[in-house]
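go over my protein:
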Amino acid sequence: MKKYILTPLLFFLFTVSHSFAAEKPLAVYLTWQSHPESTMTVHWISSADCPIDDIFYHDSEMQMWDVEQASHKTLPEGRDDLLIHKAELQNLSPDTVYYFRVAEDETVYKFRTMPAQMTRPVRFIAGGDMYHDSVEILDKMNRTAASFDPMFALAGGDLAYAADKFGEKPEDFERWLTFLRSWQNNMITTDGRMVPIIPVASNEDTKGRYNQPPSQAPFFYALFAMPGKQGYNVLDFGSYLSIFLLDSGHTHPVYGDQTSWLNKTLKERKHRLHKIALYHVPAFPSVRDPEKPVSKMIRKYWVPLFEKYNLAVAFENHDHAYKRSRLIRDGKVDSSGVLYMGDGGYGVTEPRKPVDPAERWYLAETAQKTNFVVGTLFPTGERHFQAADQDGNIFDEFIHRFSAALPLHSSHLK
C-alpha cells in the first residue's frame, strides 16, 4: 500500500493539486542532464489545464513517497494549450531502482540509475531515423530494442520527421507526440524499467535542414533537456564512460566553436575507459556519396580528434541502412583505429541498398535491413556490438578491444 509524506506543505500541495481536474499526461519520458549515476530527468506533457508540477518518487527499499517540484513552460509555435514539465531528480543512489508518478496520475513508472563504478557490463542500444514510416514499425522496433534490457538508448536524430524541409511551416507536433508515446509505451525492459533517451539534432527535426539557428528546431530543444541549447554536449557516467553528443551541421556548424569544444572535452577525458560519439550525418556513409559536404567536414574536423584521443566508436545515422566500418586511423585500416557503426535504419520499412564493402575501403559490413545496434561495455575495456533487425535477430557481431577487433559469433555472447 502506498504511503504519502503529508507534511503541512505537502498537504497544501496535495490539496491544491486536487482543485484541478485529474488527467493523465499525454507523454512521460526520461533523459539525463548530468551524472546518470545520481540523477534522472523526468519530462511529461500535459494540457495547459493541468499545470501541476508535483513528482512523487521512492526507491525500491522505501514505501513512502518523496516529492519534488518540476518546472513547466508552454510548447513552442503557438501550442500554448500544452505544457512541457521537467524535473531533475538529484542525490539518488547509484545502480538503484526507483518508482515515480507525476501530477495527479496514479500510474507508477520505474527507472534505474547507472552504476557509479563499472563493476559489471553496461548495455545500451543505438539507432536513428526512427519515426520514418508507420507507428506500427516504430512500436515494434521499440519493443524489440527494449527486450535486450538496455540501461539507456542513443537516438541518433530524425526522431519524429516533424520539420518542414523549407523552414516555412510550423512543425507537426502530432508526430512528436506519437513518437514520445511510442517510446513511453514500448521502450520498457523485461523488468518494467523505462529506458532513458539520449538524443542529438538532425535534419528532419530542423526546419530548413542545415545551417539553421536552434530556433528552427523548436520542439527538439523544448522537449529534451539534453543536450541543451548549446546543441552539443558530453554526458559522463562516473569515471568509466563519456558520450559525446554532436550536431552535424543542423543548428550548429561542424567547424569552429563545436570542434574547439570537442577537442577540449575529449582531451579532458583522454584516459576515460569508454568514449562514444553520437551524431546524425555519417563521416563514412554506406549509401550516400562520401564526398558530400557534411561528411567531408566531419572527416576533416572531428575524425582527427576521435583518433587523437582514442574514441572507441562513433554511431552515425542518416543513410537508412546498416554499416560497420573497419577500424580507421589516418585514412586507412588500422587495428588501433576508431569504429563507425549504424547508418540509421531504425524505423525504415524499406531500407536503402548500401554499397558492397568491396567497393569502399572503409566498410567492413553492410546490410539492407531495418536495424539497431546493441552495445555492451565491459570493465576490461572490451566492447561487444550486435546489429539486430526488427524481430531481434542478430545479423552482425563484433568485439572491439583497445587495439584489436575480432569477429564474434553468437555462441560466444552471453
Q: What stands out?
A: Confidence is low (pLDDT under 50) at residues 1-21, 403-414. The radius of gyration is 21 Å. The longest helix spans residues 173-186.
